[in-house]
Task: inverse folding
């Protein structure tokens, strides 16, 4: 059976994001997948990249360099436990689903902190092993999120621009950088401004998509997909 | 005298980011500006958007909605003290400088949390007052950051794409959305891979730019600037 990690960032289980997460757990479990969930707010996940992420002595305690110190700590098994736990889940997973409400054209800080802290050098990439030769090859990622604004404003002529513009840092800059192939995003536009009926249809559409997810081809994660 | 708020996110005062911050404080003070600094790691700034940001009762404690609750709390003066403090600084400032190392094509989570939590509806925007009619008009913002990768990889033909692509969510999606006009970014590429001499030149160049900063015109913060 395939393994899926859902990294989930919403404060409220009753929210649409909470329901989308539950639908994914149910549908994927029904398929025989083993599903892990990192419920970041419930875990009170630490988003700040600090010296606390390294257990024991630093390589250079005179001038703290987070990237260098976490790389070294990773190699000697000296990262903090919460990071080791998350890395174990990532390592096992065939698919990473990120479920969140869009905050400021990006993911909420608590999820950005997951990226900043979990995907350390040595584990997820190690120069020159990045992009197509990143260390998390043979995995897939899917960004599933809700927006405040309508679909119309997130178009080329719309005031917020094509929704793909804001996917570049997340999909290309993070996932592709680590060698992960990216499936098309799943976007629920403006759920707060539609009827209860339409929100239910959003959940059904997500469950439907998940039924044939493993047959999907990754997107071509290059500037053409985002900007042309 | 003009007022400047530097929102600064680096763990190490001896880093280049720390030096860039100090240079800005010195140069702007010398000009007669009053300079405020939010040193996010030193403040142990909270990046997580949670119920703790609202003092007292919630509008709807059955189903927590962060955007709605912080908007209401703002209107009745019921946001947590750390947010009120930051909003005071933003309100006073003519110019916001964001100083940080680029983490994953974006700002570190601790700074993303500052955006998520400080720029609440009612304070920074209030539909339909967004973009050119956002509530923080007559302010300027400048993103000043360091990168791990070289200038060459952040070009249209380079593997990481034009550096402007990743500025879209930060400059347009956040600052422009709040009505803030954006000055050209200040980017120090790959300081870890250049000589001590070249790092000193980077500090001098920043001080030089700041001398004539108030004469600069904001960029045209529209898709053309970013993607053409």
Result:
């Amino acid at each position: 059976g395939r393994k899926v990690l859902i990294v989930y960032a919403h404060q409220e289980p009753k929210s649409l994001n909470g329901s989308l997460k539950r639908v994914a757990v149910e549908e994927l479990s029904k398929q025989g997948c083993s599903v892990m969930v990192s419920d970041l707010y419930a875990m009170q996940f630490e988003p700040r990249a600090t010296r606390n992420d390294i257990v024991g002595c630093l390589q250079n305690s005179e001038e703290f360099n987070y990237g260098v110190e976490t790389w070294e700590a990773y190699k000697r098994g000296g990262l903090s436990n919460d990071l080791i736990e998350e890395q174990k889940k990532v390592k096992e997973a065939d698919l990473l689903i990120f479920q969140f409400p869009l905050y400021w054209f990006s993911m909420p800080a608590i999820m950005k902190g997951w990226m900043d802290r979990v995907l350390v050098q040595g584990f997820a990439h190690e120069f020159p092993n990045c992009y197509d030769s990143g260390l998390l090859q043979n995995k897939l990622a899917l960004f599933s999120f809700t927006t405040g604004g309508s679909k119309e404003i997130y178009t080329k002529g719309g005031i917020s621009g094509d929704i793909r513009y804001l996917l570049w840092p997340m999909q290309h800059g993070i996932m592709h950088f680590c060698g992960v192939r990216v499936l098309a995003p799943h976007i629920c536009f403006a759920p707060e401004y539609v009827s209860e009926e339409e929100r239910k249809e959003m959940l059904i559409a997500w469950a439907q998509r998940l039924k044939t997810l493993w047959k999907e081809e990754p997107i071509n994660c290059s500037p053409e997909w985002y900007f042309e």
In short: Chain A touches chain B through 49 residues (CB under 8 Å). The beta strands of chain A are 3-8, 34-39, 95-101, 140-146, 181-182, 186-188. The helical segments of chain A are 16-30, 66-75, 81-92, 109-118, 163-175, 196-211, 223-227.
